[in-house]
Amino acid sequence: MGLDIRLPIGLMFTVLGPVLIVTGFVDETPISVYTGLAMALFGGLMLAFGVRGQRRSSISGGEVEGSER
Amino acid sequence: MNDLQVQLHAVDWAVIIIYFAFVLGIGFALKKHMKSSEDFLMSGHSLPSWVTGLAFLSANLGALEVMGMAGNGYKYGLLTAHFYWIGAVPAMIFVGIFMMPFYYGSRARSVPEYLKLRFDEKTRGLNAFSFAVLTVLMSGINMYAMALVIKVMLGWSFTFSICVSAVVVLVYTYLGGLTSSIYNEVLQFFLIVFGFAPLAIVGVARAGGWSGIAARLAGTPGMTRIWSSVAHPADNPMGIEVFGLVIGLGFVLSFGYWCTDFLVVQRALASKDMASAQRTPLIAAVPKALFPFLVVVPGLAAAALALKLPEGNYDYTLPLLLRMFYPSGMLGLGVAALLASFMSGMAGNVTAFNTVWTFDIYQAYLKKGATDAQLLRMGKRATLFGVLTSIFAAYLCRSFNSLMDYMQLLFGFFNAPIFATFLLGMFWKRATGHGAFIGLASGIAAGVAHHLLRLNGVLHYSSDMAAAFYGAIVSFSTCFVITVLVSFLTRPRPEAELRGLVYLLTERPKSVAQWYLRPESLALIVIVLVVVLNVYFF
Fold first, then answer.
1. Up-side HSE of residue B511: CA atoms within 13 Å toward CB?
2. DSSP string for residues in B478-498
3. pLDDT tens, position by position, B58-91
4. How many domains does chain B have?
5. Cα–Cα distances in angstroms (integers) from residue B54 to residues A19, A61, B87, B192, B283, in the given order
6. What is the pLDDT of residue B406?
7. Are A45 and A38 a contacting pair, CB within 8 Å?
8. pLDDT over 90, % of chain B
9. For the segment B478-531, what is each residue's pLDDT rounded down to a tens digit?
């Protein structure tokens, strides 16, 4: 039960990252592109870990690293 | 338009709104799991150590911390890193290895409750009441500081800034309790990192890299080195020397805060087991050791670039850098990171307050036989009350500008002596409840007396910071000595009652199997990291 915090964190950064990447390309501001890329990559990793944790939890019925017990 | 006001574009607003949506969403998602007072106030002792570790760090990242440290970076340069490398990090190692087994092992629900178990009711009462009052006041100070910055940056009115931030924090802490606060602190931690790291990189690049900064600031000793200029107070911009720095800041003030303040200790108590609780401050210590690069270095870069601060106010360093270096989109991220730092600090204060109020004041004094449903209800009401009181304190600060300084001063009076009380309580079985209470009261009084003597010109220091460090030493020493003296004159509790509460009478917690998960291994890694940083920037 509970919420795996990696999922909302991952989701937020995978949403915010592309927003910054697009803005950076449109405005030609490399700092936005690089930051957006880093955020999207981080968000993707968190999402992947979160989804894997959820799957493990549903198989074992046990607790997930990153969520409430 | 003032020097700091920024023009947010649609993309900036989008970033800020997305952030708020996730913050509130976490609160709503956790609402259904808040079934008991333990769920609401203690996260059901269920969280993994990486989550509690980042929350341990993030709860301290209030507006004053983030903006204040960037301002200190401008004013004092890399000397500010002492707050981390000789202050916070060693204290985190100490609390993780030596103190957490007693906090977590005693099953105390709060720091004041540990004092009751170890000493007596009156010592708990003194700590609980002072902590409750000072915590909501500090939350209000954070709120006030943030509202000021939002006002000058975005042009929002003071009242609107306060209302938006207070409502958001209230909603997610009221719905999801401590878990929501901790989860949001983790999310906010990452947002703060992504929001400010590019600023540090751009700032350093604009100043010509690290060598460029060193060359530009070569005329002010101590700006890019941390130990080479502290032999004498006149040699560095902080006006401090080694003894005051190591004992006052490193030992007394930092240990007093990181080892005894329930705001941070509460995050560790939410851990799922003893090993996780011990790992919590040790995990937090790693990013803490690296935080000077995130918040101090931008201030240092601003100093190297000789940027003109509006009104000469060092607290405006970070907002000024955001305005100068961040384009659309990034500006929204930077503002969201500022809001995140404020809200994580405020939520941390509110959740610590509601727990101490519910367990250490309501259940201890007002309704001793309270049922769990009543405790849960009171916890939620205390959350609301904490936020409202914070708003009241913010308006007080607005009406009486000097009140903010007084409140922070008052906070310092309590933090330094309480560490002596815990040190003796945990490591000396002869310490008694009367000794602790009288020692603590004497330590606070000594801190106040020291301050008054300085105000009246009896005591002289080279800087306000030096005075604060030495005031802490006086306060701590008084508490320590008086506690020892009174303890020798009063009867100690039987040893059987102190098992699990005092070091020599308690079994060491069993080590976990994997060496890399053991608290001692983590502590060693952190020690090596902080030694390397101290040596490299000597």
1. 11
2. HHHHHHHHHHHHSPPPPGGGG
3. 988 877 788 889 999 999 999 999 999 999 999 9
4. 1
5. 26, 26, 18, 12, 7
6. 66
7. no
8. 72
9. 999 999 999 999 999 999 999 989 988 888 777 766 888 889 999 999 999 999
Q: How far apart are CA B517 and CA B219, in angstroms?
A: 46
Check if the beta carbon of residue B454 is closer than 8 Å to that of residue B422. no
Tell me, yes or no, whether B453 lies in a domain.
yes
**Structure tokens of B191?**
């947002």
Residue reference for tokens 């697009």: A22
User: How far apart are alpha carbons B456 and B182 in whole angstroms?
Assistant: 44
Look up tokens 């970070």; give the residue: B318
* Best residue of B13, B22, B23, B276 to probe chain A, by most A CBs closer than 10 Å: B22
- The total number of residues shown for chain B amounts to 538
Q: How far apart are CA B467 and CA B450, in angstroms?
A: 9
Q: What are phi and psi of B444, to 5 degrees?
A: -65, -45
Within an 8 Å CB–CB cutoff, is residue A66 touching chain B? yes
Nearest to A3 among B30, B44, B325 (CB): B30
Q: What 3-state class would DSSP assign to A67?
A: strand
- Give the closest residue to B358 by CA, choosing from B384, B391, B387, B380: B380
pTM of the model: 0.93
**What's the ipTM?**
0.91
Instruction: Report whether pLDDT(B432) > 80.
Output: yes
